[in-house]
Write a structure and sequence with these properties.
The chain is mainly alpha-helical. It has ten helices and two strands. It has two domains: 123 residues, no CATH class; 93 residues. Helix 7 runs antiparallel to helix 8, helix 8 packs antiparallel against helix 9 and helix 8 packs across helix 10. The protein is flat, with a radius of gyration of 19 Å. This is (northern house mosquito) hypothetical protein.
């Protein structure tokens, strides 16, 4: 739970652990002053003395919401966690690296905007909860494969042009979404498979990848072979881990 928050923080440069920081006040009470470089400590301290009380036990569990109360609890936890992460970023991370993290949590933020504020989306989510349970192991596998591909592509940044590598990233995202969709097609009703594909697309949406749709339609879905030569540099980092849903078991990078 909330692995997306500390994985994204772990990939950026953090300040010295002795840097002076301050507390802040958020919607759930005082946000403790972070110790720069101590991300785990920041997350552990985040959920103490919150109002209303945020049940931090869910932080380390993988549990699909079963009802509106479960969704409300997840939303409290996610929003409180994001408040603490933002406070950490403001105090310990420079502007450039803050932007990286903000880009990476974009998809999770969008999903939780729907899940926490849109009652019709909540009802639809709960209507398909059984499918989430059935597809959980497959989704976890799809996520691990996606992250492994992204890691491999990142290791090749000096071997390809920007455009070629961007196509590879887009097609990796397309493959992840199709992996989830096909697993859901096999185990669930057609409408549930479509909804899970929608969730996968939300989660894999990074601000860097806003222009992937055309590439996915013209190249990735057609099975055309991509060129693999060229030079250039692309630093694009993707996280597809959702707080509390069935893709939280990825290894930390």
């Amino acid at each position: 739970m909330l692995a997306i928050l500390w994985i994204t923080l772990a990939i950026v440069e953090t300040g010295d652990s002795n840097d002076a920081t301050t507390t802040a006040v958020g919607p759930f009470g005082t946000i403790p002053a972070p110790v720069c470089g101590q991300i785990q400590l920041m997350m552990d301290n985040c959920f103490h003395n919150t109002t209303p009380r945020v049940v931090a036990d869910m932080l380390y569990t993988v549990k699909i919401p079963e009802n509106a109360d479960d969704i409300a609890s997840r939303c409290l936890l996610f929003n409180r966690g994001m408040d603490c992460v933002q406070h950490y970023l403001d105090n310990c991370v420079d502007q450039k690296d803050r932007k990286i993290v903000e880009n990476e949590v974009y998809g999770a933020r969008k999903l939780y905007e729907f899940l926490c504020r849109d009652k019709s989306f909540q009802r639809e989510f709960l209507r398909h909860k059984t499918c989430f349970h059935h597809v959980h192991p497959d989704w976890d596998r799809c996520s691990k494969d996606f992250v492994n591909i992204m890691k491999e592509e990142m290791a090749k940044t000096n071997e390809k042009t920007y455009n070629v590598q961007y196509m590879h990233f887009c097609c990796a995202r397309y493959g992840y979404e199709e992996c989830v969709f096909k697993a859901a097609q096999y185990k669930c009703k057609p409408e549930s498979a479509v909804f899970l594909q929608r969730i996968a697309r939300l989660l894999s949406t990074d601000k860097h990848f806003q222009n992937c749709d055309r590439i996915e339609q013209q190249i990735c879905s057609s099975g055309r072979r991509l060129p693999t030569t060229g030079t250039g540099l692309l630093i694009v980092l993707m996280v597809v881990v959702l707080a509390g849903l069935p893709l939280t078991n990825l290894e930390h990078r």
